[in-house]
Amino acid sequence: MTDKGEKMNDETFNLSMRKFLKTVGVTSQQKIEEAVRAALDGGTLPEGGLPVKVILEIPAVGLTHTVSGEIRTDGDV
């Protein structure tokens, strides 16, 4: 329950969260592809892997979550 005594609608929550995450995934992939292709075209694409980090924040609930990884460009997965 919230401070106002209201209940959270789980279906609405799950649907809106999935919609948000889908938007994040699609737009992030587009931006990554654009940046990597621009670096490739400009001759500045590093060999091997690209370190990547995403920071998810929801200030209203005190959430900060970091995901780090690597995006490979050399054929080695």
Biggest sheet layout? 2 strands, antiparallel
What is the number of helices?
A: 1
Rg (CA only):
18 Å
In total, the number of domains comes to 2
Beta content: 25-35%
Give the helix level as a range of percent: 40-55%
Shape: elongated
Whole-Å distance between the termini? 44 Å
Structural class estimated from helices and strands? alpha+beta
Mean pLDDT: 93
Short description:
The protein has one helix spanning 10-42, and strands at residues 49-58, 63-72. With 77 residues, it is an alpha+beta fold.
Structure description:
With 77 residues, this protein is α+β, with helices and mostly antiparallel strands. Helices cover 43% and strands 26% of the residues. The N and C termini lie far apart (44 Å). A two-stranded antiparallel ribbon has the order 1-2. The chain contains one helix and two strands; from the N terminus they run αββ. It folds into two domains: 1-45; 46-77, no CATH class. A hairpin with a 4-residue loop joins strand 1 and strand 2 (63-72).
List key phrases describing it.
single chain, 77 residues, alpha+beta, two-stranded antiparallel ribbon, 1 helix, 43% helix, 26% strand
Element layout with pairings:
Blueprint: H1 10-42, E1 49-58, E2 63-72
Antiparallel strand pairs: 1-2
